[in-house]
Write a structure and sequence with these properties.
The protein has a single domain, classed as YbaK/aminoacyl-tRNA synthetase-associated domain (YbaK protein, Alpha-Beta Complex). The protein has five helices and eight strands; from the N terminus they run αβαββαβαβββαβ. A five-stranded mixed β-sheet has the order 4-2-3-5-8. A three-stranded antiparallel β-sheet has the order 1-7-6. The radius of gyration is 15 Å and the shape is globular.
Length: 159
């Protein structure tokens, strides 16, 4: 891990004694999509997760962690989170709300702990990849460790 700067998310995992790996990748500022990250990592896109922040009409902000090749199902996310409807927050609100930028958002160590939902079939994998809290760095982690640490609720939230 020489030369890799630990992020706040990594320090929080260290403090909790959770096993993980920091995996760097080359950032393309013109392509922050998860398929690019998966290609850079040479990993299955089904195991490279993205973190989305939504706002519900009743509960306020919620976080959805889903595989990179899927889209969040707004109806399912609303129902599971106790809202009538949810929508993605505007990109300009991401940093002030979470402390993270697009392409570097993670459910670990946000400014505030929001209800977090993770696509339920993540537990079929020994490990998944999530952002380490900055562009160019992923955390390779056992999904059960992530679920227990965040804490996240397993649910079917994708289309």
């Amino acid at each position: 891990m020489a030369g890799i700067q630990k992020t706040n998310a990594a320090r929080l995992l260290d403090k909790a004694g959770i096993s993980y790996e920091l995996i760097p990748y080359t950032v393309d500022p013109d392509n922050l999509a998860v398929d690019h990250v998966a290609a850079e990592l040479d990993e299955d896109i089904n195991q490279v997760y993205k973190t989305l922040v939504l706002k519900g009409d009743k509960t306020g902000h919620i976080v959805c962690v889903i595989p990179g090749n899927k889209e969040v199902d707004l109806k399912k996310a609303a129902k599971i989170s106790g809202n009538k409807k949810v929508e993605m927050i505007p990109m300009k609100d991401l940093l002030p709300t979470t402390g993270y930028i697009r392409g570097g958002c993670t459910s670990i160590g946000m400014k505030k702990q929001f209800p977090t939902y993770i696509q339920e079939d993540c537990i079929l994998f020994d490990h998944i990849f999530i952002s380490a809290g900055q562009r160019g760095l992923q955390i390779k982690i056992n999904p059960n460790d992530l679920i227990n640490f965040v804490p996240a609720i397993e649910a079917d939230i994708t289309t």
